[in-house]
Write a structure and sequence with these properties.
Layout lengths: L1 E4 L17 E10 L4 E10 L6 E6 L10 E3 L2 E8 L2 E7 L8 E5 L2 E4 L6 E9 L2 E9 L5 E9 L3 E6 L3 E6 L2 E6 L4 E7 L1 E6 L3 E6 L4 E6 L2 E6 L4 E3 L5 E2 L5 E8 L2 E8 L4 E4 L10 E3 L6 E4 L5 E4 L7 E2 L7 E8 L1
Antiparallel strand pairs: 1-4, 2-3, 2-30, 3-4, 5-6, 6-7, 7-8, 9-10, 10-11, 11-12, 13-14, 14-15, 15-16, 17-18, 18-19, 19-20, 21-23, 22-23, 23-24, 24-25, 26-27, 27-28, 28-29
Length: about 325
């Protein structure tokens, strides 16, 4: 099922300044409150300036296997082909049949490239193999690789020449060129990744470790704050990190400037699935202020602008496209 809704023109809400840029690519779920269960899922592409939104119904369980991604000029989501998990893609219009990208137990976008990595798990004596293909959204293969791990785990993100994975109790980086793992920490939690760095934490997560190939450094969270568990997101230039934190009983979006090590808090509390994404220019942050409420915020601004987008369900993930 596909729908198209045009919201009221909302440019006046941006105060005459530069309006938000890009399109929002959303993973949305509908719930039956009586049953406490997800009853429908869809992908949506929305214009933050006008509220215009297109929706496309997804097969049940699609959002359980990963978010809806924006990769180049395609919208990518998970699905099934017989007994196999796969990745499929659609144009931003969400029209026409979905195109098969490839088999994928896990997948993640490639940093800085209009491509993605597809991963398939294969068991072996004493451990597991993660078979990896970098592909265009059309399905054309670019690179093939593999990672040998103690056991099946999670693929969290791709760096320029490595992956961030968890296997057993270890969080590690697998170097594609040297074909070796670099163990980062035991019982570590993945927070966010960019082209050349990723953020992680452990324990109560009141401080972050920012890892780079040249080493890592620690960044303390604001006083009294702790990470809420939802993934954060690096700005397009990699110099700012936005993530959900709690301060007392409030859930908030915090942004760290990695050069100055200073934090800025959004003026509106987070809500819903506490997810956020940077606009393609890096000048705006989009985030959930409730299950169905979306806001746009320029870091440091005293207000966050409500968007007139009506997703029709709970926003589970946000990505952005140019």
């Amino acid at each position: 099922m596909r729908t198209f809704v045009l919201g009221a023109l909302a440019l006046a809400g941006f105060g005459g300044g530069e309006p938000p840029d890009g399109k929002l690519v959303l993973g949305v779920a509908g719930h039956d409150e009586r049953l406490g269960a997800v009853t429908r899922e869809w992908a949506a592409v929305a214009d933050p300036r006008t509220g215009a939104i297109r929706k496309r119904r997804l097969a049940g369980g699609a959002l359980c296997h990963g978010p809806v991604l924006a990769v180049g000029d395609r919208v990518v989501f998970s699905g099934r082909l017989g007994r196999h998990a796969v990745a499929r893609s659609l144009p931003p219009s969400l029209n026409g049949p979905a195109q098969l990208v490839g088999r994928a137990d896990v997948f993640t976008a490639s940093p800085g490239e209009p491509s993605l990595w597809l991963g398939r798990w294969r068991g072996r004596p004493g451990g597991s193999v993660l078979l990896l293909d970098e592909v265009r959204p059309s399905g054309n293969r670019l690179v093939r690789a593999r990672a040998l791990l103690p056991r099946e785990g999670m693929l969290h993100g791709a760096l320029q020449r490595a992956f961030v994975v968890t296997s057993g109790r270890w969080l590690m980086v697998w170097d594609l060129f040297r074909d070796v793992p670099v163990r980062i920490g035991r019982d570590g939690w993945f927070v966010a990744s960019a082209e050349s760095r990723f953020a992680w934490c452990r324990g109560p997560c009141r401080a972050l470790d920012i890892w780079r190939s040249r080493g890592q450094r620690t960044l303390a969270l604001p006083p009294g704050a702790r990470w809420l568990g939802s993934e954060g997101t690096f700005s397009p230039d990699g110099l700012e990190l936005a993530l959900p934190i709690s301060v007392g009983d409030r859930a908030m979006l915090a942004v760290a400037n990695l050069r100055t090590r200073r934090w800025t808090l959004a003026p509106v509390d987070l809500g819903g699935y506490r997810t956020a994404a940077w606009s393609p220019s890096g000048r705006w942050l989009y985030f959930t202020a409730g299950d169905r409420e979306l806001r746009a915020w320029q870091v440091g601004s005293a207000s966050a602008v409500p968007l007139s987008i009506e997703p029709g369900g709970t926003v589970m993930s946000i990505a952005t496209a140019g």
